[in-house]
Amino acid sequence: MARPRLLPDNFTLALIATVAIATLLPCEGKVAVAFSWITNAGIALLFFLHGAKLSRQAIVAGATHWRLHLLVFACTFILFPILGLLLKPVLSPLVTPELYLGMLYLCALPATVQSSIAFTSLARGNIPAAVCSASASSLLGVFLTPLLVQLLVGAHGDTGMSTLDAIGKITLQLLVPFVLGQMLRRWVGAWVERRKPVLRYVDQGSILLVVYTAFSAAVIQGLWHEIPLPALAGLVVACCVLLALALLATSQLGRRLGFSREDCITIVFCGSKKSLATGVPMAQVLFAGGTIGVILLPLMLFHQIQLMVCAALAQRYARRPEEQSTGLIES
């Protein structure tokens, strides 16, 4: 039986189910502590596997394209935060103050890795550059995201942790396992490559664990009583506006700076996306337990919207004749 076109993908359905379970059966007390330990172990395993999977040859091949990487990093860590601040008069009436803080947190995050590369490949872009750019963005985010959160979110509310403490904890939780995976790639890399579904399940499973524990804490503190339905609808609109501006900006910047068609595709897919896999564990470190659920709502919605929009966009690019350029505004 064919899958209905309007039915979300399995991971989206799993996220919705996880939020529903956390709403009906939130974990607390010793059970919450146990889930927290399991979640931390799952996240460490996830980034270890990413480190073991990433080819050093791909890193070297993509690293030489420094102009492209600078533009992607500027879009990820400069353009997005500026948009988040400039759009405050538009976003604030649509969402609650807490959800707006979540939008600012979203703007401070690094780019995705797997989906950026996958969409670049589907759209016939510069794949080695995408591998390098997306991976480097994730690693830079370990240091830049806490600083940006302090500048953006800290100006509107207390994040609950100093920047240096946050960088230290995120480094220990994300970067150290990644580096260890790179160091052991010689022995475990081939095994990881043969078992890519394992990485996908660890990736999705760790995210679901964090979402469950985060929303459990938020539900216990009255999450759904604090967020009215109009604010949730406004959040969808806010995420769509932010993504549309990011896609338009990355497309136009790539064209006007003289990048090739393949490079422009890479800039669009690496510079307009935000990482759920990195953002969820970082939120655990950067924010107090009761606020994580509200902070993560914009990221979860933006993640699903960007996947659906970028999937359609990648298919459109893939159908275009080779001689045409890559501007989003062209027919």
From TrEMBL:
Gene3D superfamilies cross-referenced by the UniProt entry: 1.20.1530.20
Membrane-traversing stretches: 7-25, 31-49, 70-87, 99-119, 131-154, 166-184, 205-224, 230-249, 282-302
Keyword Hydrolase: no
Pfam families tied to this protein: SBF_like (PF13593)
Keywords: Membrane, Transmembrane, Transmembrane helix
PANTHER family named in the record: SODIUM_BILE ACID COTRANSPORTER 7, SOLUTE CARRIER FAMILY 10 MEMBER 7
Protein name in the entry: Bile acid:sodium symporter
UniProt organism field: Pseudomonas schmalbachii
Classification of source organism: Bacteria, Pseudomonadati, Pseudomonadota, Gammaproteobacteria, Pseudomonadales
